[in-house]
Amino acid sequence: AKACGRDRSERFDEAMRAEATRLLDLEADLRRGILQDAFEPYFQPIVRLSDGAVIGHEALLRWRHELHGILPPADFIGVGEDSGLIEQVDWLMYRKVIGMMTKLDAPGYVSINVSPRHFRSDDFVDRLMLLVDCAGADPSRLRIEITEVALLDDAPRALRMLSLLRERGVLVLLDDFGTGFSALSYLHRFPIRALKIDQSFVHGLGSDLHAESLALVRAILALASTLGIDTIAEGVETQAQRDMLDELGCQYGQGYLYGRPAPI
Ligand code: C2E
Ligand code: CA
Ligand code: CA
Ligand code: CA
């Protein structure tokens, strides 16, 4: 039994070591990726549900890894956040997206994902607007996507930042809505252009979770309508989901039904 115990703990140590090495490798890789400027945006269309017209695109981060090919954020965002490297990656990404805005002849706006971390830094808005100015981009064609966490963290600061952005012409979309501890009680105080209904609710429509999902989507749509905020359904994959959302009064949608994220 003693030997057994030792075996187990040795195996455990080994697994820990392997995991630590993997993470270290990934962090070193990420640093190399930053030096090589190996990050690029993929774009996914956002459409009006009534007629399918494209009203904008969301820019989604991809890493062109020298060995592993194109990697989605899920593969590296954890390490990126723990090491703080994600901020550098994000700025490289934002620069690229904003630089492309003047060349893109796609209709509508381009939205970028902004993590709550950026909302803790005072110069975020200035830095972003500097990129916009330098690229000669139209700020009214840029939108930022933030989650409720960014609002709740430090509400007065978030309000200041969002107001500043709006003054500069950049509108804000509230991402993954319904998944966090909702900022319901003060949602009306923030200048928010649209709520993005989290894809978990959209996927629930027509599934085993239909009743609950329907109730939640209805509640979110009612809330948005009361506040005069637009709604974008995320993760629309089927015509049936599109039809239900349209019928419920959701204006916009995004998902594989309309197009997967793709390079420019
Ligand atoms: P998100 O902002 O909620 O983005 C939507 C995710 O859903 C994207 O995953 C997109 O590819 C995926 N998606 C779109 N339509 C469908 C669909 O019909 N079905 C399904 N199953 N999925 C769909 P992606 O590109 O892997 O991004 C994952 C997350 O990474 C994003 O979630 C966002 O939180 C984060 N992210 C993306 N770009 C950036 C960035 O530039 N900076 C930072 N910090 N985070 C980013
Ligand atoms: Ca998003
Ligand atoms: Ca989302
Ligand atoms: Ca998300």
UniProtKB/TrEMBL annotation:
Keywords: Coiled coil. Residues 23-264 form the EAL domain. This is Diguanylate cyclase (GGDEF)-like protein. It comes from Luteimonas terrae.
